[in-house]
Amino acid sequence: MEYENQYQQALGPKYECLLFDVDDTLYPFGSGLLKNCTKNIEEYMVQKLGIDEMEVSEMNSAFYKHYGTSMAGLRAFGYDFDYDDYHSFVHGRLPYEVLKPDHVLRSLLLSLPIRKVIFSNADIVHVNKVLSKLGLNDCFDEIICFETLNPTKSNVQDQPVLTDTSTIAIYKEGPAVLLPETPIVCKPFEDAFSQAFKIANINPQTTVFFDDSIRNIQSGKRMGLHTVLVGSSQRREGVDCAIESIHNIKEAIPELCQIDDHNKEHDLQMFSRNLGLQTSVTA
């Protein structure tokens, strides 16, 4: 029996889960949503947080570079604001109409008999809107998003708001400067991956991770995931595979096709076994 179990495991699929980012991964970078999102973030920084309009662009770039999201950077530097208000301002005004149903991707995802999970830094309202516009609402088994990893607001204790000049200086001096920690849990920080694995019961060793961010991909690789960089054909450190479009999933990971073949073979074996039992009973 032990040898039989080992044999069955050898025949089993290499991957058990597909983990997907959303923005600029499930739809092309050329949609323009990122440009509009950046514009909304910088307007929020000026209008809601009173940051100098002449500094917001460089500050925003610094936050994204060091913290993965602008929100995480703002909170690290002591800015206090309502998360729902932020998301409403930044995502609520996006031109979602530019996204159209992706019938090719929908068919592709539904053809893969394997667990599929969303892993996004965005809020649940935004994620659902994007999936709805793309026609992919029912293609995923679970969603890990901002609210999943940040169920309650954490306050930065005794952290004064740093001046715009201080923030720019940190950005220009580079990683040698000790950056303040952020209370926001998000990619590319490894803690976000650890929590996502635990919440969604994901084994990174049998999971393929799709993301457009090289930093997220490299973090995922360090956490044990098989990584696919979307939106580029150039492989870099930490990238197992690079594809121009999410439509190239099967070409990039041929093993995914074998999963379908394995399931079909298993179903055929079960059918034959049941048929044999019925024949024996009849005889």
Q: Would you kindly provide a written description of the structure presented here, covering whatever features stand out?
A:
The protein has 283 residues and is an alpha/beta fold. The chain is 49% helix and 9% strand. It has helices spanning 2-11, 33-47, 56-67, 70-76, 83-91, 103-111, 124-134, 146-149, 164-173, 190-200, 214-222, 249-252, 255-282; strands at 17-20, 115-119, 142-144, 207-211, 226-230, 241-243. It has a six-stranded parallel β-sheet with strand order 3-2-1-4-5-6. β2, α7 (124-134) and β3 (142-144) form a beta-alpha-beta unit. α2 packs across α5 (83-91), α3 (56-67) packs across α4 and α3 (56-67) packs across α9. The longest helix has 28 residues, at 255-282.
Q: Pairing-aware structural class of the strands and helices?
A: alpha/beta
Question: Sheet bearing the most strands, described?
Answer: 6 strands, parallel
Order of strands, widest sheet: 3-2-1-4-5-6
Report the β-strand fraction as a percent range. 5-15%
Assign the CATH topology. Rossmann fold
